Amino acid sequence: MSSSDAPITQTPEDLVVRFMPPLSHERQRWILETLRRHRARSVLDIGCGEGDLLSVLCKPASTIPNDSSLEPGRDLDLTRVAALDIDPDVIQEAAHAATDERKPHYLAPWGSGEDGWYIRWAQLEVAVWLGRLQEPNPSFHGFDAIVSTEVIEHVPEAVLPAFSDVLLGTYLPRLLLLTTPNYTFNARFHPPGVPRKGFIDPTGQTTRVFRHDDHKREWTVDEFDAWCRQAAEKHGYDYKLGGVGVPTERDPYDRNLGYASQTALFVRRDVHIPTLDRLSLDEPQSAHQLITECTFPSDPRAGHPKSNSEIRSALVYLMNMRGEGELTFSELWSELAMPSGGSMGTLENALMEQGETTEEDTLGEWSIVPPRNPNAHTDPKWDRVVVWKEFQPEPLHSEDQGVGYENEGYDVGEGYQYGSGEEYEGDGDYRWEVANPVHDPVPDSWSAPVAMNAGWGTDSDDPASRWGEGIIDEAAAAAIWGASEPKESTSKH
Questions:
Q1: Strand residues in 21-170 grouped as ranges (E)
Q2: DSSP assignment of 200-222, as one string?
Q3: Taking residues 36-52, what's their average pLDDT?
Q4: Where are the beta strands (DSSP E) in 252-396?
Q5: Which residue among 112, 150, 334, 436 is least enclosed by CB atoms within 10 Å?
């Protein structure tokens, strides 16, 4: 390690700077929320690293695409995802993150034995490439959005012009999302007048001290703005700057240093911008190496629900087995997604519309009410409560799985507890209208999923509850849920 690469030792004068949630989560949250808000259908991740963002992009959506009940949707309805990185040491991890089809944390001890949250309701094509960003890849043309998070600061000076020329001028995405460190914020780590700790600018162009030994630049807000303005004007885009990352502790010196990470959203104008001749996409092959590609097919039940009567029967069965006459949509969706064909709108119609025979009247039997005790983490759609007004708890016999009540969970076997359903964060675009409101409006909050270790490192899942196995009437359950084995994904390595 050269003297210029050597980190300066931390001293007791350093200030404590913490982020909650972690800064990497904040960056990912901004990316996912922006993609959701602009309804991106295909995403290219430039500089994907180990694949933390990639793994989230490849997760199945909760419902079928364009489910009218969920506009604007809580999920990304992606049909195509691709990624590129230059580092051969991490590209296999990215390939695994993109193509590893996750399995449920549990199998429900009743009903279909599947978990509706893990079913793919739409086909997804995934590809992971190894190569340099300055070399155009014909496969990358036509993506709805390109994302490059914490990458541009690593790009060598000689390659920097190609960053915008290729990503904007050649691929012409509708959206480009960037994040990069805010150099001004670095002062937050030290008291005024104390020499900064970190890594001296390896290019020698400045006397700045950077956060990482591989950074070729760390821009101030004005410097990043100047670069974005030039790129946007050259390639026909509008752009908007922002930032993420506010420390949990206040600055003891009351300095206004901005966000830890800067963000930039480029949106293509409604004009045709020709690609650059020297970066022509007419080349028959790309210099990039295809590491893996995979197609995840949609489940055959997507968009093919059971009858309203069968859907209601499935819900009655579930509520009886759980011994509860009130369940949130997030609690019941794992079992009701399959008979509903992946559509929450279909489930709502089955509960609230007139029965299919003159003797069957469901209008007075079911109701859907706003979330109980809403807070900043409440999802105003998924945390709505379905109420079965005629519910009467019935004692379960030993052959009915031996489900008993203990504390706040259901004992479904020795060593297992079924706990409450997961919480889902809110979508601030939705508001309730009720005859006698008793709560303040649901506060705005972010509505996209975030990986547990987003940013750098592998993504891991830590379920809040575990389910046991039980004895069920398989014939009855199959008749209600119509379970079938989904097709396996096809991949090439």
A1: 42-46, 80-85, 124-130, 145-149
A2: E-TTSS---EESSTT-S----HH
A3: 96
A4: 261-268, 289-296, 326-328, 366-369, 385-388
A5: 436
Residue found by looking up tokens 């990304």 in the block: 76
Strands (E), 97-205: 124-130, 145-149, 175-181, 199-200
Could you tell me the residue range of the domain that residue 108 belongs to? 23-296
Label residue 273 left, alpha or beta by phi (over 0 means left) and psi (-120 to 50 means alpha). Answer: beta
Q: Tell me the residue type at 31.
A: I
Q: What is the pLDDT of residues 194-224, one digit of tens each?
A: 877 788 888 888 888 888 888 999 999 999 9
DSSP secondary structure letter of residue 328: E
Whether 192 maps to a domain, the answer reads: yes
- Do the beta carbons of residue 372 and residue 332 sit within 8 Å? no
The whole-angstrom separation of Cα 211 and Cα 415 is 47
Q: 301 in helix, strand or coil?
A: coil
Task: Say what the pLDDT of residue 24 is.
Answer: 95
179: domain CATH number?
A: 3.40.50.150
Structural domain contains residue 485: no
Total number of domains constituting the chain: 1
Tell which phi-psi region holds residue 342, choosing left (phi > 0), alpha (psi between -120 and 50) or beta.
left
Residues 318 and 308: their CA atoms lie apart, in Å, by 15
Residue 48: pLDDT over 70: yes
Q: Is residue 403 part of a domain?
A: no
Rg (CA), the chain: 26
User: Band of the pLDDT at 418, cuts 50, 70, 90?
Assistant: very low
Let me know the angle formed at the C-alpha of 434 by 428 and 438, rounded to the nearest 5 degrees.
85
- Residues in CB range of 379: below 8 A, 6 or more apart: 74, 330, 371, 423, 424, 425, 426, 427, 447
**How crowded is the C-beta side of 186, counted as CA atoms within 13 Å?**
23
CB distance 164 to 178 below 8 Å: no
Report which DSSP code applies to 188.
Answer: G
Give a yes or no: residue 335 inside a domain: no
Q: Residue 315: phi, psi to the nearest 5?
A: -70, -40
151 with 244: CB under 8 angstroms? no
Query: Average pLDDT for residues 430-446, to the nearest whole number?
Result: 34
DSSP state, 329?
H
Between the ranges 18-32, 207-221, 438-452, where is the mean pLDDT highest?
A: 18-32
Over range 354-362, report the average pLDDT.
50
Q: For the range 229-233, what are the long-range contacts, defined as Cβ-Cβ under 8 Å and sequence gap of 24 or more?
A: 230/164, 231/164, 231/168, 231/266, 232/266
Q: pTM of the full predicted structure? A: 0.73
